[in-house]
């Protein structure tokens, strides 16, 4: 077993690699892609807009609900941001439109410090509530000027671009605020609890 | 076993290449000896790190092909034309060389011998690799859990593990294998090239009434199409596990 802090590097005989120009926008261990790859654990859920609902639930069980029409009546913003997937691709300056979590959380009384995002299809991911506040997180419904495609999380997905993209839950249907943290889907299966790309927090213990 | 050491740090290991053999013109299997390796579950992958003389490093993920019971770790790597890491693993690295690997990674797309339901495997191209680990693990455990594989490949020449699969299907009544050739069929094949479709599923796959656990692995477009076909055939989406990879899936 190697200790990252004190290892003798293993040089791969004859490996040169394809060096890319240094890019300050790229977190460690990431490479640029122009594509928009897809990574999901199961089939892509098909959600009719008439059936879509977003529910914000506090630690007391108090719930606020928006149907699609009510959700789209909320003020939305344009977001241009870099995104980073734990599978090592990054895509720069992607253009989204969404509703800020600050808008959805406005007026909510809570003592919670953690949140669990829940998706159609059963996916979950956990985040500190602070990471959802302060114009850092949105429920996004447009990408590149188009309605968000189902394979990329449409009709709407969470967008928390300062964390690895598995935190940006596709097909979002709700967020539950929690007094205590608990792991979501990938976080229970070997992936990092927080997922900061700049600290390369890919897996447990990173 | 991997995935049970709660929140333990996933370690890097030094792996020695013991064997390298060609599967096809563009795919090669590397058998690694990894001192300290904690074992894996069928379906998991590893990160492989290559390092140049000047310290430049590149990391990519590869599925494990070997059985969970196997002390050595086998990886089958498909060369991507524009890849940075895969050409080295397919063309250059040789027995005696060392690599660094980290893992095993992934606790969702796995099959364990304790699982008793029938298993439907559907692979596109090199998406067969983690499914092969499941087939080998089942066999190594001496189990007869019903397994069916549908393997979609461009041509007979691009099929990996073809001889081993043929042999296993002959010897094992519990394992059936069906091919979908998408560009070129073998001589005398009774149908023109075609993709996996509803007709092939109804002919070669477990029905939804048999409630199999479904594992689908391959390029994104393939996985999207097959997962949708399975849902249309009545399979519960909760029983369909997918793993997408290829040029746009982050491995190269």
Number of strands of chain B: 11
β content of chain A, as a range?
25-35%
Major sheet characteristics of chain B? 6 strands, antiparallel
Tell me the name of the CATH homologous superfamily of chain A.
Answer: Oxidoreductase, molybdopterin-binding domain
How many runs of DSSP E, i.e. beta strands of chain A? 11
Q: What does the largest sheet of chain A look like?
A: 6 strands, mixed
Task: Work out the radius of gyration of chain A.
Answer: 18 Å
The portion of residues assigned to helices of chain B is: 10-25%
**Molecular shape of chain A:** globular
> What percentage of the residues of chain B does DSSP assign to strands (E)?
25-35%
At CATH's second level, what is the architecture of chain A?
A: Alpha-Beta Complex
Strand order of the largest sheet of chain B: 4-3-6-1-2-5
Instruction: Identify the biggest protein-protein contact and residues per side.
Output: A-B, 45 and 53 residues
Instruction: Determine the structural class of chain B based on helices, strands and strand pairing.
Output: alpha/beta
Number of helices of chain B: 5
What percentage of residues of chain A falls in helices of 4 or more residues? under 10%
- The count of helical stretches of chain A stands at 2
Q: What is the terminal-to-terminal distance of chain B?
A: 27 Å
Descriptive report:
- The complex is a heterodimer of chains A (206) and B (252).
- With 206 residues, chain A is mainly beta.
- Chain A has one domain (31-199): Sulfite Oxidase, Chain A, domain 2 (Alpha-Beta Complex).
- Chain A is built from two helices and eleven strands, in the order E-E-E-H-E-E-H-E-E-E-E-E-E.
- In chain A, the strands form two sheets. In chain A, strands 1, 4, 5, 8, 9 and 10 form a six-stranded mixed sheet that branches. Chain A has a five-stranded mixed sheet with strand order 3-2-11-6-7.
- Chain A is globular and about 60 Å long.
- The model of chain A has no long low-confidence stretch (mean pLDDT 93).
- Chain B contains five helices and eleven strands, in the order E-E-E-E-E-H-E-E-H-E-H-E-H-E-H-E.
- Chain B has helices at 86-92, 128-140, 162-171, 198-204, 220-232; strands at residues 12-22, 27-33, 45-51, 57-63, 73-78, 98-105, 119-124, 147-153, 175-181, 213-218, 240-244.
- In chain B, the strands form two sheets. Chain B has a six-stranded antiparallel sheet. In chain B, strands 9-8-7-10-11 form a five-stranded parallel sheet, with helices on both faces.
- In chain B, a hairpin with a 5-residue loop joins strand 3 and strand 4 (57-63).
- In chain B, 48% of the residues are buried.
- Residues 1-6 and 247-252 of chain B have low confidence and may be disordered.
- At the A-B interface, loops of A face strand 1, strand 4, strand 6, helix 5 and strand 11 of B.
